[in-house]
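It is worth pausing here to work through a concrete case rather than discussing structure prediction in the abstract. The textbook approach is simple: state the sequence, then state the predicted structure, then interpret. We follow exactly that order.
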Amino acid sequence: MLDGPVPEALTFDDVLLVPAKSEVLPAQVDTRTRFSRHILLNIPVVSAAMDTVTDSRLAIALAQQGGIGVVHRTMSIERQAAEIDKVKRSESGMIVDPVTIGPKNRILDALEIMNRYKISGVPVTENGKL
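Step two, the predicted structure:
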């Protein structure tokens, strides 16, 4: 039990933001925040780690805006790793480490990769060159 006076608390219904003219320009605002000691977010938005909320698509969209998506744990470890792999490969909307195949791979190999990563094509490389 509480000893003494009950502290004041507010809920979302208690607060209303009224639009008004501001002298502060958007470029002057810093919304960065720390998610952890080593992770800095450009926007203070973190998705819920729920199976109906966060998958690789939302995590990619949040990362592109400066937030972070927390992939839920109600899937196998292999599927979690696959979802995170999709996010890591889609840095800033540009594939920084693309999945490739060699000239001796079968079309079936390419189709399996495309299905696994939900991508529309796979570059064919030989000795690191297209």
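Step three, interpretation. Residues 30-117 form one domain. The beta strands are 33-34, 40-41.
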